[in-house]
């Protein structure tokens, strides 16, 4: 059994987000803690609306916050994706940085193998030391193959081992139609991906805030350690020419044709769109722009619950030095709305039964569930403690008994 706390969270949601919330009902939640929003407001037949410039072989678009599919056209068709494979290289790099295994200022010595890579480059010199942050910039901005190889060798010791890591991470993300055989995207038998899978790894990359330090750069004169200067120009032209676009990765080979996975943010709503196999560079940018336009014209996104923001301050706790504890959600919970949609949502807290001290800050003590007016679950999060609550000692217990006795005596 769990105890449900409704009135407090109801007031919080109304006050903070000014949303219409229906009365709450107590019920036990399903065991999908911290799951993504599950409901999709569109039938499969509605996910391919008419848009301008729809010429690529495959296209796919989602809402970033909820993962809701907004558009799809042959999303699971296996194709080469050229340099978009570097999305996975970047994802693994930022995950290594955030875990503490690497750092932005870490110096990397460039191998002959890395500097000798063909295709798009930032023209690294063999034997020179470059900070990791500069190599990341080269991959993000100008799709540098030499920087990609240097990073792969640093993380795994060899490109081959890094490719194994790429495929393992793809499987963990549920990318069922993906196989990596190199880190550059240069033509090689056996390498393929899909618009759906590209979007999946791009969405994961976009969760790393440091990525945006690099993705919005359009042009920069980069100075190498030996003083030589290389002009870096972002291959994703939409960061300059589409309002709100702040991230993306292009790709091109004769086999893959012109590809792009990009993201844009407007009015608090972020979308991610991918096209594979466009006829030319202009066509890929035109189609992604059209997808963005469709999303922003037809949808809006509300954040019902904010991560780490107090949602209740007086949850009762037993046997603690304090009798109350403040709690919050461990993740943001969003809901996607079609323009004109006035659907109501309810937010419920289900706390662990017989909550008692000690409780450590950040520990999970329950679950938050958001449902629509039909009772369907659209988002969940863990409820975590915002403070440490120590167990009450003998002196604390005695003090409480005396205070309770004194208070009772005064009422007589």
Explain briefly what this protein structure is:
It is built from 11 helices and 17 strands. A hairpin with a 7-residue loop joins β12 and β13 (324-329).
CATH class of the largest domain: Alpha Beta
Largest sheet: 6 strands, antiparallel
The radius of gyration is: 25 Å
Distance between the termini: 38 Å
CATH level-two architecture of the largest domain: 3-Layer(aba) Sandwich
Quote the average pLDDT.
86
H-E string: EHEEHEHEHHHHHEEHEEEHEEEEEEEH
What does the model show?
The structure is a single chain. By secondary structure, the protein is α+β, with helices and mostly antiparallel strands. The protein folds into 2 domains: 2-39 and 303-395, D-Ala-D-Ala carboxypeptidase, C-terminal domain (Peptidoglycan synthesis regulatory factor (PBP3), Domain 2, Sandwich); 71-236, Beta-lactamase, CATH 3.40.710.10. It contains 11 helices and 17 strands. The protein has helices at 7-17, 86-98, 112-115, 132-142, 145-156, 159-172, 195-205, 212-215, 238-241, 281-298, 394-411; strands at residues 2-5, 58-63, 69-73, 107-109, 129-131, 219-223, 229-233, 245-253, 257-266, 269-278, 299-305, 310-316, 324-329, 333-338, 345-352, 364-372, 377-385. The strands form 5 sheets. It has a 6-stranded antiparallel sheet. Strands 3-2-10-9-8 form a 5-stranded antiparallel sheet, with helices on both faces. A hairpin with a 2-residue loop joins strand 9 (257-266) and strand 10. Helix 2 crosses helix 5 (145-156). The chain is globular, with a radius of gyration of 25 Å.
């Amino acid at each position: 059994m769990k105890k449900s706390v409704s009135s407090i969270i109801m007031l919080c949601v109304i006050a903070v987000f000014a949303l219409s919330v229906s009365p709450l009902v107590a019920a036990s939640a399903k065991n999908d803690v911290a799951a993504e929003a599950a409901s999709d407001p569109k039938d499969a037949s509605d996910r391919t609306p008419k848009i301008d410039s729809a010429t690529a072989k495959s296209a796919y678009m989602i809402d970033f916050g909820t993962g809701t599919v907004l558009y799809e056209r042959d999303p699971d068709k296996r194709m080469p994706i050229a340099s978009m494979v570097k999305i996975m290289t970047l994802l693994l790099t930022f995950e290594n940085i955030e875990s503490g295994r690497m750092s932005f200022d870490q110096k990397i010595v460039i191998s002959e193998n890395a500097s000798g890579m063909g295709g798009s480059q930032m023209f690294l010199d063999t034997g020179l030391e470059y900070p990791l942050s500069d190599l990341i910039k080269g991959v993000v901005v100008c799709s540098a193959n030499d920087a990609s190889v240097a990073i792969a060798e640093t993380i795994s010791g060899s490109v081959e081992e890094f490719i194994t890591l790429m495929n393992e991470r793809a499987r963990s993300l549920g990318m069922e139609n993906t196989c990596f055989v190199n880190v550059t995207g240069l033509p090689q038998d056996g390498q393929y991906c899909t618009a759906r899978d590209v979007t999946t790894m791009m969405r994961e990359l976009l969760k790393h805030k440091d990525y945006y330090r690099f993705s919005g750069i359009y042009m920069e004169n980069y100075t190498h350690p030996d003083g030589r200067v290389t002009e870096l120009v972002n291959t994703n032209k939409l960061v300059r020419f589409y309002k709100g676009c702040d991230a993306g990765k292009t790709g091109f080979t004769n086999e893959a044709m012109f590809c792009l996975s990009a993201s844009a943010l407007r009015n608090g709503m972020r979308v991610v769109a991918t096209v594979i196999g466009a006829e030319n560079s202009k066509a890929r940018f035109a189609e992604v722009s059209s997808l963005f336009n469709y999303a922003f014209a037809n949808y809006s996104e509300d954040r019902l619950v904010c991560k780490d923001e107090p949602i209740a301050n007086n949850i009762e706790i037993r046997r603690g030095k304090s009798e109350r504890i403040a709690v919050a959600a461990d993740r943001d919970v969003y809901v996607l709305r079609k323009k004109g949609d006035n659907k109501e949502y309810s937010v419920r807290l289900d706390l662990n039964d017989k909550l008692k001290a000690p409780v450590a800050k950040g520990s999970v003590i329950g679950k938050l569930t958001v449902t629509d007016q039909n009772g369907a679950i659209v988002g969940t999060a863990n409820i975590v403690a915002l403070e440490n609550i120590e167990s009450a000692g003998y002196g604390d217990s005695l003090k409480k008994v005396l205070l309770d006795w004194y208070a009772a005596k005064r009422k007589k």
